[in-house]
Amino acid sequence: MDDNYNSCFYANACHVCKRFGDGVRLKRCGGCGMIAYCDQRHQKQHWPRHRRLCHAIQEVVRDNGLQVRQVSPQEWAQLKMNLMLLVAIRLPRRLDEYETQMFKFPRACLVCHERSNQLLEDCRLVVHVVAANFIELETARAWEILLHLMSSLALVRLVMIGPELPSEIVSTSVCEDCVRQRKELSFEIHSALYENYVRGSSFVRPDVVAGFNTGIHEREEATYPEETWASSVRALAEQGCPLILSCYTRVEAEKETARINAILGKETKHVYAGINPFAGLRPYRDFETEGIFYQNNYVIVYSNL
Q1: 63 and 172 co-located in one domain
Q2: Domain MYND-type, which positions (predicted)?
Q3: Rounded to an integer, what distance in angstroms lies between the CA atom of residue 247 and that of residue 232?
Q4: Host domain of residue 109
Q5: How many domains is the chain partitioned into structurally?
Q6: In this predicted model, what pLDDT tens digit does every residue of 10-29 receive, in sequence order?
C-alpha cells in the first residue's frame, strides 16, 4: 500500500490526502484525538499503522494525566516532549518522523494550549490593553486581524483600561467572512487604573496583556508628580500571562525593563526585546528633541512577569 502520505504531518489536514480548509470536514481520531481524516475511507486506510500508537497515547494519558493549561512556552514544550517519550517507551517500535511531529506540533490553542476538540471549535481570546488612550480607541478595529490569522478563534474580547477613557461596552462590526463564520470582536472600555480594574467586579482574566508606549519609567523620572504604575505592574504580574510592551526607542525599552524590575524586586526575563517588526511606518517629529520617531518602534515580550 502506498504510504507516502506518512512523510509529514499537519494537525489541521487530513493525514492521508493532506486536504484542509474550507469545504473539508475533518474527523478527529476517536481514540487519541491527535490526527484527523477527511472521511472514513482514509481513516481505515491509515488505521493499521496508527493503531498501536493510538492505543499507546491513550494508555499514557490515562495513567499519567495531562495538565497543560496556563503554562509557559517552555513548560508546554517540555510537556509535549515528555508525552512523546512516555509513548515511545510503550510502543514496540521506533516512532516514525511524522509521528514525532504529532507530538511536537499538536492541534492546541495557541494561548492556553487546550486540546479539547470541542473547546477548540469555540476558542476565545481575552486581551487587556493597559494605559489605553484615544489612539488605541481609534485603531481598535485592527484587532480583527486575529480572527483572520487564528482560524480556531471565535471571539476576541478586547478590554481597554485607562483612566482617561469613558467606561462603556462598545459593539463593533466585523467583515463579511467573520460574520459568515460567526466570529466576533467585542470591546470593553474601563476608565480606571489597571490595579483598580483588576480588583473590581468587572474584571475578566486575560489571556494576554498589551501596552503601547505606556511610559512606565516616566513616573520614576518625575515627569509626573504621582506614582501610579507600581501597583499596576504588580497587578500585571499576578495575571500569569504573556505581556507585550511597545516603546518609541531602544533607550526607553531599557528604562521600561529596569523600572519593572525595580517595582517587582527581581530580574524579569523577557523572551524578546528589540525592533518591532510590526512598528508603525509613519514618521513623527518630537518637538522636544526635534528628532524623528515611529510608533511602537521597539517591543518587549514577556511570557509572564
Answers
A1: no
A2: 14-54
A3: 18
A4: 1-116
A5: 2
A6: 998 999 999 987 678 889 99
